[in-house]
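To illustrate this point, we now present one chain and its tokenised fold:
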Amino acid sequence: MRRLDLGQTVRAQQLLAKSEQLQVVAHSRNRGMCLGRLSVAAIKAGDVDHSVEATTKAIELIRTSCMSSARAVEQLKIVHDGLALHHRARGVGDLLEEIRAVVA
């Protein structure tokens, strides 16, 4: 997460993707935060497809585990703003609507 904070988005994306794979499913809050940060890192690195994938997983996790976190919502807002620039890309328009529904 610190790589993302330092603006090293590509390296952050790589490390967060690995971290997400290692997260224990039972720890949904940690996994959700990792997915949120991964979504942000991917969109900031210009990787729309991976941002969409991670965001979709994060939203699914939020909905199925009833996870509520102000930090997770904040991450989704950042992703929404980044993905809005790519609203015509495959799957992005629908995902933007899902994000709005979750953060509302």
Remarks:
- Residues 48-65 form the longest helix (18 residues).
- The helical segments are 2-5, 9-22, 28-44, 48-65, 70-84, 92-103.
- The chain is about 75% helix and 0% strand.
